[in-house]
Amino acid sequence: MSKFGELIDLNVPVLLDFYADWNEQSTAMHPVLRDVAAALGDKGKVIKIDVVKNQELADALRVKSLPTLMIYKRGEMVWRQSGEQDANTLIGILNEYI
Q: What is the CATH number of the domain that holds 33?
C-alpha cells in the first residue's frame, strides 16, 4: 500500500477508477477515462485500479460498487462517486482541483 501513497501524494489531482473487467458499467467507463486523461494532459492523472488484483486496497477504501471514482490531491481524498460519469462532468470536477 505504500505504492498507493506515492500515487496519490501529488500536487495535481489524481482520478482513481476502481473497476473490474466483468462489470459492464466499469468497462463502459474506459473510453470516457481515456478522454478525461487526454483533456487533462499533465495537469492531472487518471489511474485505473482493478479490484480483482487489488482487493486489499479496495476493501481498505470501502469500494462496494463499481465503478467507484475518487479524486485525490496531495494524499487527501477530495471527491468520491460510485457509478458512471460522463467525460465533461469529470473534467469539470477535476478542473476545480487543478
A: 3.40.30.10
Is 89 domain-assigned? no
| pLDDT tens column, 29-85 | 999 999 999 999 999 999 999 999 999 999 999 999 999 999 999 999 999 999 999
Question: Does some domain include residue 90?
Answer: no
pTM of this prediction exceeds 0.90 = yes
Q: Residue 68 in contact with residue 57, Cβ under 8 Å?
A: no
Q: Are 49 and 58 in contact (CB under 8 A)?
A: yes
CB-count burial class (<10 Å; 0-12, 13-18, 19+) for 44: buried
